[in-house]
Amino acid sequence: MMIGVLCLFIKGIIGDEVLANGVIVEKNFFLIPLSYLFFFSGILTLIFFSMLKKQNIAK
Fold first, then answer.
1. What is the pTM of this model?
2. What is the pLDDT of residues 25-38, one digit of tens each?
3. Which of 7, 27, 29, 49 has a CA that sits 20 to 30 A from residue 39's CA?
4. How many angstroms separate the CA atoms of 53 and 30, rounded?
5. Exposed/middle/buried for 55, CB within 10 Å: 0-12, 13-18, 19+?
């Protein structure tokens, strides 16, 4: 999850550029979906390990 937050932070620091004709140039747009991927995979991993831990405690 921290890698996802880091990707969004880097995207915010690098920023975007607006050309003279009004076109927005996003230099590192790939960081946005990549950050969502890392963040949600981290959430799923936490859920998985918490369920696994509950199963081991129940035994």
1. 0.75
2. 988 999 999 999 99
3. 27
4. 35
5. exposed
